[in-house]
Specification:
single chain; alpha+beta; Aminoglycoside 3'-phosphotransferase, Chain: A, domain 2; 2 domains; six-stranded antiparallel β-sheet; 10 strands
């Protein structure tokens, strides 16, 4: 299995490096920001910054320890900074609304019992560390890794019993149910909605994804498979479904677990409003994507986990809503991931981790699967 493992690591190298940021200057800026946020203390110190590479491909996540002196003694906090990427580093998204993400975490904490890290402060001024950022408390727990993918045979989740894997799956779908129960989502989360065209939340959500694709194509060039995919979505448009608040990046790699139960739900960059099926489709599809990789590299995978029919059945039992047209939403999710691949592929070219492609669709890792799904 050694050669197979090396091949899988080679696969991930193209999305491994994310930033050209100087961490020491960031550390000094965070130290100054901490002093401003805690003016009652003194001798504020921020320790060495460490990044995360096991999950995620978008915002920079920096972990650090902070200490300062206050009347009662030394205060010590373990914190996390979420930082908007530099434009030159080929960010995944067209815009990084750190203020909106910060407000979303605050509102989720106020409106639900879904566990989120405690938000500390938001800093809009890019001069402080080079980009806007926000800071939140660090939570201890286990995250299903992307590197190596959790279903490749070595992760804590893969080695767990089937019963514990099932518990984690149910609890993860339960997160969706709790978030989707928020009343009047377009009122509470108006700051996320923007002014996209369309007479339904799904129309507006797909319009936003088309804009995202056009942003990616500006640098990568037009993708034939993605444009065919968007045309397929239009030609097979699903029935209307109720609008709910959407976490957006609804996958188990964005959850910290303890004893297979969620203790922190992370990454709110894609949050908004839309049908519940967009969330289920993404959660199911991201596991399917890892299953395809496991098969390609000769790993056993977890084919019994996060199957569409099981996820939909659990969601209906928890919420009473029967998911409709889930295959359409899974195809929509495949197109979403393809846009991510366009941006991260360009990033890997930027950092010299892969040669420039001869065609745009070479960057779309899941192009063959999309073609199969839409009959192209």
């Amino acid at each position: 299995m050694g050669d197979t493992a090396n091949s899988a690591k080679d696969w991930h190298s193209e999305t491994n490096k994310r930033s050209s940021r100087d961490l020491e200057s960031v550390r000094a800026g965070l130290e100054r920001a901490l002093a401003a946020f805690v003016p009652g203390g003194r001798d504020h110190r921020v320790g060495e910054l460490t990044g995360t590479s096991d999950t995620g491909m978008s915002s920079e996540t920096l972990l650090f320890d902070a200490t300062w002196e206050e009347p009662g003694g030394t205060r010590h906090e373990r914190l996390v900074a979420r930082v908007a990427p530099f434009d030159d580093d080929f960010p995944v998204f067209p815009e990084y609304d750190l203020s909106g993400q910060f407000e979303t975490i605050q509102k989720v904490a106020a409106l639900t019992d879904v566990p989120v890290p405690e938000p500390w402060w938001y800093e809009p001024d890019p001069a402080v560390i080079g980009s806007p950022f926000f800071v939140m408390s660090r939570v201890d727990g286990d995250v299903p890794p992307d590197v190596m993918p959790y279903n490749f045979g070595e992760s804590w989740l893969f080695k767990a019993s089937r019963a514990d894997q099932a518990r984690l799956q149910e609890a993860s779908i339960g997160i969706l149910g709790r978030l989707h129960a928020i009343p009047e989502p377009e009122k509470h989360f108006a700051h996320l909605l923007g002014d996209w065209p369309g007479d339904t939340s799904l129309r507006r959500r797909v319009a936003k994804r088309w804009h995202w694709y056009q942003y990616a194509a500006r640098d990568a060039g037009r993708s034939e498979i993605l444009e065919k995919g968007f045309a397929w979505l239009e030609d097979h448009w699903p029935a209307d479904s109720p609008t709910v608040f959407c976490w957006g990046d609804s996958r188990i790699g964005n959850v910290m677990y303890r004893d297979f139960e969620p203790v922190a739900v992370l990454d709110w960059e894609m949050a908004g409003a839309g049908p519940a099926e967009t969330e289920l489709g993404w959660m199911v599809y991201l596991h399917r994507m890892f299953e395809d990789m496991a098969s390609k590299y000769g790993f056993p995978g977890m084919p019994h986990f996060m199957r569409p029919e099981d996820a939909a059945g659990t969601y209906e039992r928890i919420t009473g809503h029967a998911a409709r047209d889930l295959d359409w939403y899974i195809t929509y999710s495949a197109l979403q991931l393809a846009i991510v691949y366009l941006r991260t592929g360009l990033r890997s070219v930027r950092f010299g981790e892969r040669p420039a492609p001869q065609s745009t669709d070479e960057l779309v890792t899941n192009a063959s699967e999309i073609a199969e799904r839409i009959g192209a």
